[in-house]
Amino acid sequence: MKLMIINGPNLNLLGKREPNVYGSTTFEDHFAQLQQKFPNVELEYFQSNIEGELIGKIQEVGFNYDGIILNAAAYTHTSVGIGDAVKAINAPVVEVHISNTHQREEYRHVSYISPVAKGVILGFGLQSYDLAVRSFLG
Ligand code: DQA
């Protein structure tokens, strides 16, 4: 089982970005924990602040990997292009968010990913990623 985690803009700042919303753990630390928790899953991780790079990575792995765990961050709410990329590939995509976006500003209630995702996990902090990995294990 080979899964790619793709994180969008500003998620490189996890640990120091709005810790009251996103917690105080860096994604690198959480990723290391994920690898320990799921030793039989080949997990990779990519982050970019650039929309086109996220689309490029979705296209690159979307025909080879068993699945993608995608937190498109702010692009979730704006990017027709990322939604189209998810629709174009074969690999199932699980959309994740650290925060419960439905409890937040109204512009975060819209997602261009949800209609084309296999499922959505949000609001469980960094544990949302763990639950997403589990969802692929059946
Ligand atoms: C987020 C929620 C988005 O609304 C926000 O723009 C982010 C992070 C989350 O994981 O909770 O950057 O995707």
From TrEMBL:
A GO BP annotation? quinate catabolic process
Q: Where is the active site?
A: 22 (proton acceptor), 97 (proton donor)
Q: Where is this site: Transition state stabilizer?
A: 17
InterPro entries on file = DHquinase_II, DHquinase_II_CS, DHquinase_II_sf
Free-text function comment from the UniProt entry: Catalyzes a trans-dehydration via an enolate intermediate.
Q: Which family does it belong to?
A: Belongs to the type-II 3-dehydroquinase family.
Q: How does it assemble?
A: Homododecamer.
- Output this protein's name: 3-dehydroquinate dehydratase
Per the UniProt record, the lineage of the source organism begins with: Bacteria, Pseudomonadati, Bacteroidota, Flavobacteriia, Flavobacteriales
